[in-house]
Design goal:
Number of domains: 2
CATH architecture of the largest domain: 7 Propeller
Structural class: mainly beta
Distance between the termini: 64 Å
CATH superfamily of the largest domain: Galactose oxidase/kelch, beta-propeller
Helix content: under 10%
Shape: globular
Radius of gyration: 24 Å
Number of helices: 3
Bound molecules: 2-acetamido-2-deoxy-beta-D-glucopyranose
CATH class of the largest domain: Mainly Beta
Number of strands: 44
Strand content: 35-45%
Largest sheet: 8 strands, mixed
CATH topology of the largest domain: Methylamine Dehydrogenase, Chain H
Amino acid sequence: MHLNNQKRMTLPFTLFPHHIFLLILLLHPPPCPATGGGSWSLLLPSIGISAMHMQLLPTDRVVIYDRTDFGTSNISLPNGKCRPNSTDCSSHSVEYNIACNSIRPLMVLTNVWCSSGTLMPDGSLVQTGGWNDGDHVVRVYKSCDECDWWEVPSGLSQQRWYATNHILPDGRQIIVGGRQSFNYEFYPKMSTTETDFSLMFLVQTNEPDVENNLYPFVFLNTDGNLFIYANYRGILFDYVRSKVVRTFPAILGGDPRNYPSTGSAVLLPLRIVQGSVVNVEVLVCGGAPRGAYKNANDGKFDGALDSCGRLKISDPDPQWVTETMPLARVMGDMLLLPNGDVLIINGASAGVAGWELGRDPVLSPVIYGPDKPTNCRFEVQNPSTIARMYHSTAILLRDGRVLVGGSNPHDKYKFSDVLYPTELSLEAFLPAYLNPILSGLRPIIISPMTKTMVHHGERFIIRFQVSCLVDPNLVKITMVAPSFNTHSFSMNQRLLILDGVNTTMAVGNSHYEVSVVAPPSGNIAPAGNYILFVVHQEIPSEGIWVSIR
Ligand SMILES: *[C@@H]1O[C@H](CO)[C@@H](O)[C@H](O)[C@H]1NC(C)=O
Ligand SMILES: *[C@@H]1O[C@H](CO)[C@@H](O)[C@H](O)[C@H]1NC(C)=O
Ligand SMILES: *[C@@H]1O[C@H](CO)[C@@H](O)[C@H](O)[C@H]1NC(C)=O
């Protein structure tokens, strides 16, 4: 009913302004506390390449690469080197040194375009696939002052272009899907005869001419199975027996969420209580409505999805719960922050992923608090000035900043006469927890030292300092697995909240210690490198590298 069709309301008292205010309060729930926040800092105006893929390494450096086949980049290879059999003497991969804010060019040989990867337990990045001469190649980058990429020419049994990788409890990685590859394989392989295994789910979720299931969202569930989401639905998959264990309902609305209708997804923080994780939840946000890919190719740019679906995959009969983001977004990146919040950053508000197919950058990130009251979970952050469209990236750093780079929706580097010029800059988003005004509340880890090793299930002590400890029960210890980011998805992303709440003890002089237990198994936390944070009142310390063996 419309108000003008109704009789004018008569109120049994005179309205004063404060009554109106009360009335508004009654009609609308109180606004959520604190919106806005975070700040941006330009780190380097140009790193010479557009950051299509990024991985943080345990050496506190970031390996970054673009594709190799479009011509020259804006940074030369060192010592007058050129690409093999080519007049291209530019670099298509760099290593970013965080502490020095500097760049070193690297030589990646075959084409790594739209590839995937995983940080291995030994701290090297093992990257797989790409296009053309690179589609069966496995490449390894282990960080050191002089190190460079090396390649395993036929490391893959199938071509892998737009695939998703995940580290497994046995230390290998699984590589799932890719364009016209409805199967999965492992690296390294157990034997010379091991090849690949078919995955019908990828056939079922593939749409002719659109696909909508590339770069599937893959997470290791705490029961050892993989959660795989493609297009509009997910399964639980036993990769050892090659069996679908469970089929989850379609996401509400049934709109596609994977490339090219690119949304993003995270496994929400895993809280370990007495050696197990009770709740395992997946959050999928954004994407493009059905039909948007065809429309974008016809020059009509549909508004992006503003919905998220949250699914408790540990429930016997889970249903998607829909939540609405304050800003619609396609090609956004979802990152777990050290305190367990989810950052949604980069992307556009119309169109789809692909060359020239996105419109209207979303410059403001949004932070989602998974445990906040349902109407208060999203908080819009202060905007960047730089559009981060297709082929942009974002990763969490050990100091709690988020490194943001890339954006190149063109088939070559184009710096003028286009809507969204190729972006070579690197900037950082600083969540509000890094505000210097909070320094009295921010813990500083005293011990262990960074690069500590713990075993699964091992109890260990963390000592930290904080000037103004408000409540020892508001301290939590988190561990974040550094993820491989490309095309709006962070492979291997995982945050664990360790057992050991309520054990924080004062040991004098603003010093405290807390006794925690390392994640109990490789299903909960595959062996490898993690960043450990002490979080007090949602404000994280600078992290330390901890390796789980
Ligand atoms: C990259 O190099 C091209 C060609 O030399 C130049 O026109 C362009 O301004 C450079 N872009 C940046 C951002 O440095
Ligand atoms: C370069 O060209 C030579 C001669 O055609 C060929 O044998 C060699 O394999 C090529 N190298 C690469 C890395 O493509
Ligand atoms: C921690 O302590 C608080 C306050 O004493 C209590 O409410 C909470 O239940 C405790 N949590 C656990 C996991 O023991």
